[in-house]
Design brief:
The complex is a heterodimer of chains A (116) and B (114).
Chain A lengths: L2 E3 L4 E5 L4 E3 L2 E3 L5 E8 L6 E7 L7 E2 L2 E6 L4 E6 L8 E9 L8 E2 L3 E6 L1
Parallel strand pairs in A: 2-12
Antiparallel strand pairs in A: 1-4, 3-9, 5-6, 5-10, 7-8, 8-9, 10-11, 10-12
Chain B lengths: L3 E4 L2 E4 L5 E7 L6 E7 L5 E8 L5 E2 L8 E7 L2 E6 L8 E8 L5 E3 L3 E5 L1
Parallel strand pairs in B: 2-11
Antiparallel strand pairs in B: 1-3, 3-8, 4-5, 4-9, 5-6, 7-8, 9-10, 9-11
């Protein structure tokens, strides 16, 4: 079974600085998808960024980028120029590639605090 | 695009009654929807996968007779908590798979059973 590990229960960063959230996963598959979701105090889960395992290029969405290391099974999220609105729980998630199995496996989350 | 709504956002019911939660994909069709449960300060736990026109697939340990799921159309799935008890109090979240492989989540429903 796949597992997703987020080893940082809490992180904090000064506003406008850069922070990196860690995620590792375990799978025997070669093709899969990885995601970072954000859950602010409203509890609405918001997709931040996605990565296909077959793509070597790291995904980027504005201030959010990932460092995908397939051999190391590592998928970290970098947030640049941190803003107060970035404060939230961040969940890393894994999904197998075949459309017959679409279950997301979530990590335990990292609570990010932005210091003004 | 890819907006998912849930109704109600909050519900309080008495022990022994049933509660229905609706999940709708507003601007796309979703053949597959998912229902999660989230306890305070914890991650999401998948309860079941809902497929349009067929029976839901429940995760191990989830009582299918207690948590009834109906996916009647490509834009609507419902979760009914039958004979609710205080231990069923939780935050319930649905998601829908869009045209890509990502899941898009509803805003959640907070259920309190008194």
């Amino acid at each position: 079974a796949q597992t997703v590990t987020q080893s940082q229960p809490e992180m904090s960063v000064q506003e406008a600085e850069t922070v990196t959230l860690s995620c590792t996963y375990d799978t025997s598959e070669s093709d899969y998808y990885l995601f970072w979701y954000k859950q602010p105090p409203s509890r609405q889960m918001i997709l931040v960024i996605r990565q296909e395992a077959y793509k070597q290029q790291n995904a980027t969405e504005n201030r959010f980028s990932v460092n995908f290391q397939k051999a190391a099974k590592s998928f970290s999220l970098k947030i640049s120029d941190s803003q107060l609105g970035d404060a939230a729980m961040y969940f890393c998630a894994y999904r197998p590639f075949p459309f017959g199995n679409e279950k997301l496996t979530f990590g335990t989350g990292t609570r990010l605090t932005i210091i003004p | 695009g890819a907006v998912v709504s849930q109704h109600p956002s909050r519900v309080i019911c008495k022990s022994g009654t049933s509660v229905k939660i609706e999940c709708r994909s507003l601007d796309f069709q979703a053949t597959t929807m998912f229902w999660y449960r989230q306890f305070p300060k914890q991650s999401l736990m998948l309860m079941a996968t809902s497929n349009e026109g067929s029976k839901a697939t429940y995760e191990q340990g989830v009582e299918k007779d207690k948590f009834l799921i109906n996916h009647a159309s490509l834009t609507l799935s419902t979760l009914t908590v039958t004979s609710a008890h205080p231990e069923d109090s939780s935050f319930y979240i649905c998601s829908a798979r869009g045209q890509t492989y990502a899941q898009y989540f509803g805003p959640g429903t907070r259920l309190t059973v008194t």
